[in-house]
Write a structure and sequence with these properties.
CATH architecture of the largest domain: Alpha-Beta Barrel
Strand order of the largest sheet: 6-11-10-9-8-7
Number of strands: 12
Number of helices: 11
Structural class: alpha/beta
Order of helices and strands: HHEEHEEEHEHEHHEHEHEHEHE
Number of domains: 2
CATH superfamily of the largest domain: Aldolase class I
Low-confidence stretches: none
């Protein structure tokens, strides 16, 4: 699922950022041949994501490092659980600790938040999706973590699909014109999504032949009317100000997809520590 070339590039940039001229502490305290063992411990309950990325951090620094996973990505863990053991050159373990933990904690936080949301609507025919509101440079990892938490991925980039938003509509002369212009140029395999804020816009998007219609920041009552108006003639996505407190009510309107930027843009990192043994 993860492109290793991209992952390695992310890790190397992170390591370069953390020690642009080496690790002045470790390099002066630790013998180059010293070998150590360490464990990674969950300090709170959650869903783990990013173990293979964390392992790769140590492999890049020490090709003989051994990273033994006690759980797999997507697994739920409890406070106090050992999630991995690492053995390798002491210098490599110390130099890679912060980078490995930063990535593992962020991705596990995203997976945990996603899982919490998905659990609320797991009995309903709706999918929970992320957005492009990801950490710059880490999108592939953020979206991977959403999948590990039970969610689904919206488009990865602006190149993946047509999503005509409010500013596109204003700049191109309306929904009908925007859809026509897009349809003329894109391959037949690419779908067109239109963001709508009113029932009038929903009607325009339907008439224009949109494949997916986003209901943006609509009230529950307006969503219900929009779903009835669309009547399965397009895939329906709900977005905007959706929280764990109102997501079930949104799902019950009959929408197909609920996209939530908060899964990635303001996630709380999961508390995970690494201790030498």
């Amino acid at each position: 699922m993860l492109n290793q070339l991209i992952v390695d590039d992310i890790i190397k940039r992170a390591l370069q950022e953390d020690m642009p001229f080496g690790d002045i502490t470790t390099d002066n305290l630790i013998n180059e041949e010293s070998i150590s063992k360490a464990v990674m411990i969950a300090k709170e309950n959650g869903v783990i994501a990013g173990l293979d990325v964390a392992a790769r951090v140590f492999e890049i620094l020490d090709e003989k490092a051994v990273f033994k996973k006690h759980v797999s990505d997507g697994c739920k863990v409890s406070k106090g659980d050992i999630i991995a053991e690492i053995e390798g050159k002491t210098r490599a373990l110390l130099k890679g600790e912060r980078t490995a933990l930063n990535i593992l904690q962020r991705l596990s936080g995203i997976a945990s938040k996603t899982n919490e949301i998905c659990e609320i609507v797991k009995d309903l025919p709706v999918s929970i999706a992320d957005t492009r509101k990801t950490m710059p440079g880490l999108r592939i990892l953020d979206k991977y973590a959403v999948k590990m938490g039970g969610g689904s991925n919206h488009r990865y980039s602006l190149s993946d699909g047509v999503l005509i938003k409010d500013n596109h509509i204003a700049a191109s002369g309306g929904i009908k014109k925007a859809v026509e212009l897009a349809r003329k140029s894109i391959p037949h395999t690419v779908k067109i999504e239109v963001e709508t804020e009113t029932l009038e816009q929903v009607g325009e998007a339907l008439e224009a032949g949109a494949d997916i219609i986003m209901l943006d920041n609509m009230s529950i009552e307006m969503m219900k009317k929009a779903v009835a108006l669309i009547n399965k003639r397009a895939v329906i996505e709900a977005s905007g100000n959706i929280t764990k407190d109102n997501i079930r009510e949104v799902a019950l309107t009959g929408v197909n997809i609920i996209s939530i930027g908060a899964l990635t843009h303001s996630v709380k990192a999961m508390d995970i520590s690494m201790k030498f043994r």
